[in-house]
Write a sequence for this structure.
């Protein structure tokens, strides 16, 4: 049983946003309206907890497009379980996920 | 997506901000962290540029987002075990406790224009022959607040008492005032007083002449606030509660009487239905009971007010001015008494602590306790004085419910709170290094005592010892908390903490 009680509403919202497909910091900021000073520490914490994982895109692809490589985040299996519990705790989050899937 | 060759200054500043925050990030994570932030800023700029949304608002938002790099870096720094240990070690240190109290005191000083009320109380310029200047008021048998006396006792005492040299009545109110046709915002303080008040106080006007009959005298702050410091204010019309009067004089800038607020003095004969506080000059050698007896006799014979003797309150100017200091002293003494009663079981332990071989450590602990308690008490005293009396009467404190009983209760509860906190804090500290104890561990088994654990043990993070705190202190135990010193063989266990 994963303890989702320590997940605040803001953190759950960020986790939900990552699950909805926003995979980098500024995209999450745009989607949630939260400032970078909230989003990035939350991402670090969730990564430390193992709820999300980060991955650098291939340098080769970025170089070909003459731009710096980007770091992408995705929800892990544990993170998905935490999110499921959070959706029970914060029912609006569940609706947010259904809406984005539709 | 080709990069726009001209890198705007907003992007350069954003990247500089990120570089500025980078030293906070632990070295092993720094490069990757910088790479991620730089890439994010670059992509955001390029996206907005190519979608033609690179406007002033977006530039500002990018700068704001770059500032978030500091919060991100600080989080990474604080999440490190060694940093967390250092922070909690610093928070537990006795110096942090003293520094926090000193900071609170500085904060109070800054928030109260440099401890204005405290300075006024301690260094106020006394009127001439302040020792003989006395205030008289009424305090009813059945309690309640302090009240003024019927104003017809003023001429009766002035003519009938051989113990007084002069008497003036004064009534303190907030009334609507308009000067030069303009209403003064918020009803200012208006003191209706007998025309001889300033002669009695030994004050000379800075401008104009004190009126012999009815007239208005402005204090210096009122003259600056209402008349913009114009000399032409003398002789001009001022309306108090709609009644017109003439400004006759302005008081000197260094004169302070009841309040720091701009004050208008309405000099007039006070009739019997008015309730007046009395200012009087007492002849040398007259004591309080003689004075009360004489004044009560005259009030009964001339004005038919009986049984006043036990209801009269008399205080000299100095006493009235220093009354908060006295209240605070009494409150501190009371708090000390209650603290001694509550912690009497610790006396044996304190006595043992001063045995010759431990005297040096005990002296350090005592010094810390005194410094901590002194600073906390100073915070209570100063904050009470500054914030409960800033807008109310400085003398005759209990005239205003916000400055009399409130202040006394604040001092009683505040000093008691400080002393109990100081003792409890001292008990929760290491007996050697005075750091707050850490790592609380429940001992015994649940259910052994009233369905709870039988006690808690706390450790000094430096490994000096452990404190055993039982859940319940039995009445026969002289010192319920037990300190167990740890020798050097335990040091290895705490090595990682340093």
């Amino acid at each position: 049983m994963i303890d989702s009680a320590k997940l605040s509403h803001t953190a759950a919202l960020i986790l939900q946003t990552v699950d909805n497909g926003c995979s980098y910091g500024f995209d999450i900021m745009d989607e949630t309206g939260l400032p970078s000073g909230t989003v990035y520490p939350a991402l670090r914490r969730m990564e430390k907890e193992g709820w999300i994982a980060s991955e650098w895109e291939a340098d080769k692809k970025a170089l070909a497009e003459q731009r710096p490589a980007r770091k992408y985040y995705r929800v892990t299996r544990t993170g998905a379980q935490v999110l499921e519990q959070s959706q029970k705790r914060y029912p609006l989050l569940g609706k947010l996920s259904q809406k984005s899937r539709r | 997506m080709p990069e726009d060759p001209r890198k705007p200054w907003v992007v350069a500043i954003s990247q500089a901000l990120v570089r500025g925050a980078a030293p906070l990030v632990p070295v092993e994570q720094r490069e990757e962290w910088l790479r991620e932030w730089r890439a994010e800023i670059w992509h955001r700029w390029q996206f907005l540029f190519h979608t033609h949304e690179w406007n002033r608002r977006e530039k500002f938002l990018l700068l704001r987002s770059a500032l978030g790099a500091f919060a991100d870096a600080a989080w990474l720094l604080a999440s490190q075990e060694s940093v967390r240990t250092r922070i909690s070690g610093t928070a537990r240190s006795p110096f942090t406790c003293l520094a926090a109290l000193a900071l609170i005191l500085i904060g109070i000083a800054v928030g109260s224009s440099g401890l204005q009320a405290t300075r006024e109380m301690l260094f106020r310029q006394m009127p001439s022959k302040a020792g003989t200047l006395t205030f008289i008021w009424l305090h009813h048998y059945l309690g309640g607040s302090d009240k003024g006396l019927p104003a017809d006792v003023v001429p009766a005492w002035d003519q009938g008492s051989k113990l007084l040299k002069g008497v003036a009545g004064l009534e303190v109110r907030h009334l609507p005032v308009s000067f030069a046709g303009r209403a003064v915002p918020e009803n200012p303080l208006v003191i209706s007083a007998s025309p001889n008040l300033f002669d009695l106080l030994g004050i000379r006007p800075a401008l104009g002449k004190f009126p012999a009959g009815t007239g208005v005298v402005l204090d210096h702050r009122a003259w600056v606030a209402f008349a913009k410091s114009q000399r032409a204010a003398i002789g001009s019309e001022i309306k108090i509660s709609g009644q017109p009067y003439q400004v006759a004089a302005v008081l000197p800038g260094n004169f302070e009487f009841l309040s720091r607020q701009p004050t208008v003095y309405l000099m007039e004969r006070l009739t019997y239905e008015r309730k007046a506080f009395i200012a009087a000059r007492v002849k040398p050698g007259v004591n309080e009971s003689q004075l009360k007896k004489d004044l009560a006799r005259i009030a009964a014979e001339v004005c038919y007010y009986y049984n006043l003797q036990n209801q009269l309150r008399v205080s000299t100017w100095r006493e009235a001015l220093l009354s908060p200091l006295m209240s605070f002293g009494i409150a501190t003494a009371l708090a000390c008494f209650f603290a001694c009663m509550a912690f009497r079981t610790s006396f044996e332990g304190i006595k043992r602590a001063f045995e010759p071989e431990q005297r040096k450590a005990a002296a350090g602990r005592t010094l810390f306790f005194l410094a901590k308690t002194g600073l906390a008490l100073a915070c209570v005293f100063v904050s009470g004085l500054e914030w409960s009396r800033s807008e109310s009467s400085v003398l005759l404190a209990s005239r205003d419910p916000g400055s009399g009983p409130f202040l006394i209760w604040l001092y009683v509860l505040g000093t008691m709170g400080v002393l109990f906190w100081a003792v409890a804090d001292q008990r929760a500290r290491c007996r050697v290094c005075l750091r707050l104890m850490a790592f609380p561990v429940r001992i015994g088994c649940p259910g052994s005592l009233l369905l709870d654990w039988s006690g808690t043990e706390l450790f000094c993070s430096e490994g000096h010892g452990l404190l055993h705190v039982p859940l319940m202190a039995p009445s026969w135990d002289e010192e319920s908390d037990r300190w167990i010193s740890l020798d050097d063989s335990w040091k290895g266990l705490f090595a990682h903490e340093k």
About this structure: The longest strand of chain B covers residues 164-174. Residues 438-497 of chain B form one domain. The two ends of chain B are 52 Å apart (CA to CA). Chain B touches chain A at residues 1-3, 35-36, 38-40, 42-44, 46, 64-72, 75-76, 79 (CB under 8 Å).
